[in-house]
Amino acid sequence: MNKKVLKKAGLASLVIAIVTILSLIFIIKYRIKSVIREVVRSETNGVYKLNFSKISIDFFKGRVKLNAVDFKPVSSDLKDYRFTISHLYFSLASWNQLFFHRKLFVDSLQINDPVITIFQQPVQKSNNELGPFQEIFKSLRNISEIFKVHVLEINRGNMTIYRETNDAPLVISNINFRVENFGQQQKQNTHLRFADNVTLRVGKQQWQFPSGQIIKFENLFFLGNDQTFQVDSCAITTAPDSRGQRTSLFAEKFLFRTNEIATVFERNELNLDTLYCKSPVLSVAIPADKKDNDTVSELNESIHQLPGNINIKFINIENGQIHLTSSDGKRSYTGKKTNFKIYGLNIGRNPVPYIRAGKIDLNLHEISFATRDSLYLLTVNEFRFDSNNLVCTNAYLKPSPKAKGYLKGIDLPAFTLIDISLNDLLEKRLKALVAVIDNPQFFFGSRAARKKAVESGIPVNKFYNTLKSLAQLVDVHWLTIKDGALNYTPLGSSTPELSLNKIDMEINLVGMLNSASIQETRQSIHALRIGSINLAKDNISAGLNNFFIDGSREIGTLGSLAVQLPSGIKLNAANLYWEGFSWEDFIRDKSIYIDTLNIPTIGLNAQVLPGGSGEIRSGLLPVTINRLKIGHSVIRLKTINNTAINATINHISLQGLQAAGRFVSWQNLDARADSISFRDDRRQIAVQRLHYSALGESTIQNISYTDSACRIKSPEIRFQVHLFNSHPDELRIGKLDIPRAYINYRPVSNSLSVACRFALHADDGVIGKSNGGAIAFDNFFLETDSLSLVKPGPHGLLEISNGSGGVAGYPLAINLAGNNPHLKNIINSVHITGGRLFYSDSTTIASVGNITGNGKTGALAFRDVAVNPRITLETFIKTTVWQKDYLTFHCDSIGLHQVNYRALLDDTSLAIRSVYLQHPRVTTFRNKNTAFLHGIEKLMPTKLLAGMKAPVRIDSVQIKGAVVNVQEVSAITKRKSIVPLSNLNGTITNIVSRPGEQDSLVLDVSGRVLEYEIRTLRYAESYTDSLSGFTMQYGIAPMQLTHLTKLTNPLSAIAITEGRADTLYAKLTGNKYASVGQINFYYHGLKVRLLNKEDSLKRSVFLSLETLLANGLIRSNNQNPARMFFIRDREKFVFNYWVKTLFSGFVTSTGVKRNRKYQKMYNEAEGKYTLPPASGYSAPSHSP
What we know:
It comes from Niastella koreensis. Keywords: Membrane, Transmembrane, Transmembrane helix. The chain has 17 helices and 58 strands. By secondary structure, it is α+β, with helices and mostly antiparallel strands. It has a domain at about 1-210. The chain has a 39-stranded mixed β-sheet that branches. The protein has a 19-stranded mixed β-sheet that branches. The longest helix has about 40 residues, at about 1-45. The radius of gyration is 68 Å and the shape is rod-shaped.
């Protein structure tokens, strides 16, 4: 029984225990259900509710399992979050809290196959894609607060996020998450919400956010022990931009660690200690319709899509690349792999997006920056950061095809941007405090005009505009260029026309580009150095070395300058220095203004080549220099025709210099030069020293001029020339003073030689340009001495020696381009004070011992005049074949008075008022035994004068004390006779070669012949009579006829032994054919004796009989006039004509011939020769 009781009691106890246990289980389950639901209701303020299909409790393990858990809103109109969990396991940490305090303390929580659905309302829509995750983190944080969960594990979780009803959701799957010590705080900001040993694994994912962003990766792993994230094969693609283009980033591995991972979920902030990216590739899509695009702009838009703020202490990117591709797939580019390190990166919005970095060590390839107008593209091949400095290497700037500038490109091997602005780096610009560019190369080219010719020349503002274009890409306050180069290549050329090398520049770029005036622009250039400048254009080459300017101080220097023109001109200069260069004029007016320019050394070497021209082209930039100083200079000029100019210049000082085109002007000029020479094929000029002063007196020392015909030397020339421009309308000469000079003129063509010393002084001169280069001086003085002139002829010589003279106080005026009607006035101021003349030819020798003259009075005097045959009389006698005269002439002086120099200069006539011959002496010799040359008519005197080529007019020739000795060897006796004419005084009037209608040649002479006095000898011949009609009169004083024996003995072997003439007077007329006249030869006691022709002293009976017969035939006395008639032998001179006519009168007077015979001869010849009437003659009644 007891056994039964015990059995029943045991069974009842068992039932009770089972009921109790079952009740307890029911209560616990109910309690857990109610607590969980209450917690959800109370924490969500009744908005959400939690349902599950089954709950299982393992009391031994203290583990609770919920199946088919569903967390959803109470109202169907509210959709924020929804959780569905296949299996949820958790273990209770305290049953006491559950039963007595209705609190659920969970030691561990395991969620299997959860599906989280998030509905994000439109009002909550933002660019923060981490919003849903932050909400989940907040929920987890609340769960940890409520349930005090120590361990949380999620397996195979899935998350679906909706933003718009019709949008595709964001799906995250295969989430595995485990966290220990979830509810205990170990260290602030070092664990994930007071958790240890956090492990997160996410399998292969492809997240496509509603905004269009896409994230793909193969695996994501997080290990909480060392706070390290690792993402494998990750690809991030940005949302499409305004053009529908995407930017993507792919990396084989992302590895980063942080001690503040909770900040991502708590403060929307990512704080990382280290970020490592392995082989990332940044792909940027470029629109297909654009050839160039700014890569940084694409990066900037992508970075702006990042959520929240990002703070990374260290970033290490290994083998990073940039890939560019066009949207149409036709163009692509992949940069080289590079390493990239960043220290202290901060990215945020406060409120404007910004990026800051403490130090960046970046190596990128092929990064491009475009200007705002997309006309210029800067491509950087290598791109790295050094601290906060951006270092770029192998960069190139080039214009787009739409750019209309002259820039072809800029090579930038290396440049550094100091204190780079990362914000502006992402805003399409490179902005820094200072830019240092090493070894840049600027390339310029000309543009082809559409309708006009191809542009020539290099515009001044090309480099300035290039800086403006560069400033759109590189915004810096200060620009420094080191060892740069610039090349300008014209259109159609393969070689540069202009090259600049070793350019060093320091520019306040902001001040230059933002300057309101050229003055500010100039001052912004603190230093500009150019090692060399080379220009090669149109066969023009120019080289400049060590060029330097300081715009703020307005100074500049140039080490050397070398210019070579196609004409052969070479210009060299060294050590140039200038002050006050005006940028305003240079930029605004394209003109050059310099306050002071010093050129210590300059050289000019010109050699004009064939086809070249030394002409300076117009169109040069206008130049103004207040003060110009040129030191030691060497000039060497040579042309193709062997013209050479050499000079050594010691000093040139110019003030107020202005040049425009070919016109150059100055206010003052002072120059000193040595060893100046000019040479060409015809002449040479040498100057030992020159000092020129535009305002004062100038001097030339030891000047010489030499050509093929002339040599001039002067030890000194002093002058004042007021020259102030290169093209004066007139040249003012204050004075010209040559104290001593020597000239030697000897032309080759005519062998003329002239030499003399002279001195010249002129005041107040002017050389005009408008009137053809006229030269005028108010006062002109010229003195010469030691004048010598030698004029060799074909057979002789004309020589003037020891001449002296000059011109005093003459107002000289010479027109080099035309006639000089006033030049004849200079004769009035000419005076000749001395000189000797010598002339010789094949037959004659002439000399003048002294020459004097006065131009004002028209007087010219010759002293000691002598004219002789070149051969001696003996030689003349032996060599003469035909009869001719051996003539000598001597004169003490010949004076020309009132010479009409005006007529001489006008080429009308040689007009002389009077000629005076003092003691002229004439000797003639003729041998009648020599054969006579027939066939040559001797002209009458007037016809001889008329035949002169030069127009001559001499009013009168006065002769005083003349002596004439006529020597003749008789054909009868073979002996020489001498007819002496002495003490001849007379006048010859009207010697003309261009006579008037009433002009006649008149000769009036008196003198002695033998022992007889010639009282009257008058001869008058008409110029207008074609037959040379003349009249002649003789008058001789009473004389002893025996003196005629000196003449008749050697001529005719007749001696006059007795007789005396009381009267001898004759008057005759005639022409060139014959003459007729009357002679009054009254004498008495005439007796003659015939002599032996061979020996006048020999006596013979036959001669005595002939003498007796002769005295019987002649009249011993005559008191009657007699007829003269003679038919001229026109082959003999007119002097023979005169003498023979006179002898015809002697013959009729002595009765040798009858008057009737001459009358008959006259009657016969009168009509034939048109003789004048024989008036004044009546035959005597007793004529025989």
